[in-house]
Amino acid sequence: MKDDNKYELIVSASIHIMKEKGFEKASVSQIVKEAGVAQGTFYLYFDSKSAVVPAIARRILTALLSEVQTRHKPGAAIFETIEMMVEVTFELTEQYKEMILFCYSGMAYYHSFELWEEIYQPYYQWLEQQLKSAQDKGACTANVELHSLSRMIINVMETSAENFHLSNQRGQDTAIHKQQVIAFIANALTDSHS
Questions:
Q1: Residue 194 near residue 144, CB atoms below 8 Å
Q2: What pTM was computed for the model?
Q3: How many secondary structure helices (H) and strands (E) does the chain include?
Q4: Coiled coil: which residue ranges (predicted)?
Q5: Sorting pLDDT into bands at 50, 70 and 90, what band is 153?
């Protein structure tokens, strides 16, 4: 039987070592030394260093969804919820930007882009429920398929936050950038020309 604590130790150690040394230079032996576990224990959970990357991505997304759910006000208007989600997405993208960068490079090595869908499923479902509630109240257009829309909205938020924080857009006003994202999403939710 696998020990969840050891799994978490390995993921935390991987984050620390990869942040310190970069994805390429980090080794399994460095990770297990940091985690305080045997090398064989690492391989009970992961078949390679690259296989840890989806676990790191899952941890980032779990933190994001947890923060969104904590800040969400039940009964809030969908546009208030979207504004809060954009705020959280920008904050956590800045906080985790180094990890996000090596998640992208590590996912490419691991050829596991299909895991993104599984990792994001709880977040997509949560937003889809919020959109359905808003649609039922007539607060957003009924002319859209919510399953796809929830994915598009999350992708717009994350791509915008990543472009802003990962491409070092210094000198640009974060608040203006966030407001443009919010306006874009609001237009998509209220466009009656669809």
A1: yes
A2: 0.85
A3: 9, 0
A4: none
A5: very high
